[in-house]
Amino acid sequence: MSESIFHSKEQIKAICCIGAGYVGGPTMTVIAAKCPHIKVTVVDVSKSRIDAWNSPTYDLPIYEPGLLELVKETRGRNLFFSTDLETAVKEAEMIFVSVNTPTKTVGVGAGKAADVGYWESAARKISQIVESPKIVVEKSTVPVRTAESMAKVLHSNKRGIKFQILSNPEFLAEGTAIPDLFNPDRVLIGGLQDEDGLGAANRLVSVYKNWVPGERILTTNLWSSELSKLVANAFLAQRVSSINAVSALCEKSGANVDEVARAIGMFVQFFIFLFYF
């Protein structure tokens, strides 16, 4: 495998995902279901979690409607769960990183900033293991320009191995993760705007095009993608807070909160149409 991995017109044949949690598990299961030609390996340092994914009785570590049926369909065919990080990373052309980014508890930003320690640890392990160029995909919610720091860690290997980092944030809701993945309203992919970055982004686009219409796949620069996920989270929090306040007002005024919410939604869509078109 040469550096043409960033520009190859062939379909991706092997994917690895580091992190078998709420995002990594369902996302990789859907990719395996929709792309039977791709070997998908999900790895995690937690043996108990991997054992649960491999349970003979399918006692999966998380529950999402529809997930069990997909795991039964794909596990052992082209979906595998393992603690063998080294083998999975070496085999993969594309490595998704879906590890926790909890709020920092100590140091600068404690109680506010995201702790990217797990991400940095994953990047170091990847850098130490790989023997050929790889495409690394941010799946975790991370601060803006995390990819810049990760690139420095990944390229610290003394063998001159190159990486391209992509941002591909998730927009899943608990309870509807599988329908959200099967029929997303958008898939966001960000990469560097140079030849290798654009080539790597196109390779991830080709994976999603196995089931997602091309017009729903949005490509941006790397930093726009990272920021978009954070802004989406902030907008959601603002909407929840606002509708709670509106609900109290509706109770006092006799208005119907569902009708008000629907009317506001229509207005927002109209505003977006005017703004962009």
Could you explain how this protein is built, in words?
With about 280 residues, this protein is an alpha/beta fold. About 45% of the residues lie in helices and about 15% in strands. The protein has helices at about 25-35, 45-55, 65-75, 85-90, 115-130, 145-155, 175-180, 195-210, 220-255, 255-275, and strands at about 15-20, 40-45, 80, 95, 135-140, 165, 185-190, 215-220. A 6-stranded parallel sheet has the order 3-2-1-4-5-6, sandwiched between helices. Helix 8 (about 195-210) links the parallel strand 7 (about 185-190) and strand 8. The relative contact order is 0.12. Residues about 270-275 have low confidence and may be disordered.
Short description:
This protein has 277 residues and is an alpha/beta fold. The protein contains ten helices and eight strands.
What does the radius of gyration come to? 20 Å
**Sheet with most strands: strand arrangement:** 3-2-1-4-5-6
Shape: globular
Strand content: 5-15%
Name the average pLDDT.
88
**What is the succession of H and E elements?**
EHEHHEHEHEHEHEHEHH
Structural class: alpha/beta
